[in-house]
Design brief:
By secondary structure, this protein is α+β, with helices and mostly antiparallel strands. It is 57% helix and 10% strand.
Length: 426
């Protein structure tokens, strides 16, 4: 079996805000640390998918600043790279004022890096004749290169990118379930702490999103429409967490596959359901291990960033997680995954922003429909479309189309977004 415990520990980490601008802030904060003083200018070289996902969201802790230049300046003047994806936790008013002035003066230049990994950020900071550079690639906190004045500096060995590992070994849904069912939490207190932190963090940001006016208020809209429906509360809590996160809420979330929205989607449906049904904490933890691992493994086959909306696979995993909590068998859980993917798989990603919450709501509606079908012995017919009858093969086919077939879609989406005003993209 794969080392699923290690995978969970690497992937389920806390992060503030949308992970793409936060990764930019982290990269710049690290380069600032290497430079040793405030720069005169910052040059950012970002892959198209980073540009797509960082241009329209509010950077947490910045009082409403949006986009790549804001993230870079906030990381430079108020970031602590030791905090990784919570890099902006220490930002204060003085740092914020410096960041605003730096952006207003046009000192951050953003360049579209081509022919690179879909998740790629290179930050070069210059002061006089001195410069420092940091490169993140293949993971939101995965540094692969550090330099100062042309001299390479030591960097901790970057772990293998999950996409590379998954594409070599594929996915085995039955093997994941075996790990989940045989997991001894008594011997894995680290996993208990990890899952409990996800429950705490992600529930808190969902409640924040429901209590206050963030983004398009998708979660509150769902809750207002049917406050007494468990089905709608499941969707509302997940959407509300995204509402808050995309609008710059400073509360951290525990992410999945490098994405807070995917972490929210894979976890909150189970948390809401288990709370409503007074289920034991251990049952919820086990269900969350199942949902999280499915989401991680499916998204790893697609790749960290693509034109395929990541909440689709996370919602399919959440549907299987709910099926697990309700005592359905492996065949039924496989049907939930398959029906979810083959129904909502066409949702494309046009960047991180307020509409992510509505996409979560739609994807979860599909997974809840798939769950109802499986419980009633109904499923999509094998041999039609991409339904191969083998869940592992079906997942691989969907992932292959998302990873390879949607490349041109990704390029066209980015092209359209740049025409309508990507901040500083050159």
């Amino acid at each position: 079996m794969k080392d699923y415990a290690r995978i969970l520990k690497e992937e389920l980490v806390p992060a503030m805000g949308c992970t793409e601008p936060i990764a930019i802030a982290l990269c710049v904060a690290k380069a600032r640390e290497l430079l040793g003083r405030a720069p005169e200018s910052i040059d950012l070289y970002c892959s198209g998918n980073i540009i797509k996902n960082a241009q329209s969201v509010t950077v947490p802790g910045t009082g409403g600043m949006c986009g790549m230049a804001a993230a870079a300046a906030a990381g430079c003047f108020g970031g602590d790279p030791a905090l990784m994806l919570e890099v902006l936790r220490p930002i204060d008013e003085q740092a914020l004022a410096q960041a605003r002035d730096f952006v207003a003066a046009g000192r951050v230049r953003v360049h579209h890096a081509r022919g690179v990994d879909s998740l790629y950020i290179r930050a070069r900071l210059t002061s006089g004749e001195d410069w420092a550079e940091a490169v993140i690639e293949g993971g939101h906190a995965r540094f692969v290169s550090l330099m100062k004045n042309g001299r390479s500096l030591p960097v901790a060995a970057a772990p293998e990118a999950p996409a590379e590992e998954a594409q070599e070994t594929g996915i085995d849904v039955a093997e994941i379930l075996h790990f989940v069912e045989s997991l001894d939490f008594g011997s894995h207190q680290d996993l208990v702490d990890l899952i409990d932190r996800q429950i705490d963090y992600n529930l808190r940001i969902a409640e924040e999103g429901l209590e206050n006016s963030y983004g398009a208020m998708v979660g509150r809209t769902l809750m207002d429409a049917a406050p007494d429906s468990l089905r709608e509360r499941i969707r509302a809590y997940a959407a509300a967490g995204s509402d808050a996160r995309m609008a710059g809420c400073t509360l951290p979330v525990v992410i999945n596959s490098g994405s807070g929205n995917q972490g929210i989607t894979a976890s909150l449906p189970l948390i809401v359901y288990a709370t409503e049904k007074n289920m034991s904490q251990e049952a919820l933890r086990r269900g969350l291990v199942w949902s999280n691992l499915l989401a991680i493994q499916m998204k790893a086959l697609v790749g960290k960033l693509s034109a395929f909306c990541g909440v689709v696979s996370a919602a399919a995993a959440a549907g299987a997680g709910l099926a697990f909590l309700q005592g359905l068998d492996l065949a039924q859980m496989e049907q939930v995954i398959s029906t979810s993917l083959l129904t909502a798989g066409g949702i494309f990603c046009d960047g991180a922003k307020a509409s992510c919450a509505s996409k979560i709501a739609v994807a979860l509606d599909c997974s809840l429909l798939a769950l109802d079908m499986a419980k009633n012995g109904r499923s999509l017919k094998t041999g039609q479309g991409l339904n191969t009858g083998d869940i592992n093969q079906t997942i691989r086919e969907v992932a292959r189309i998302a990873r390879e077939g949607m490349r041109e879609t990704d390029h066209m989406i980015l092209e359209s977004m740049l025409k309508t005003g990507a901040q500083g993209a050159g």
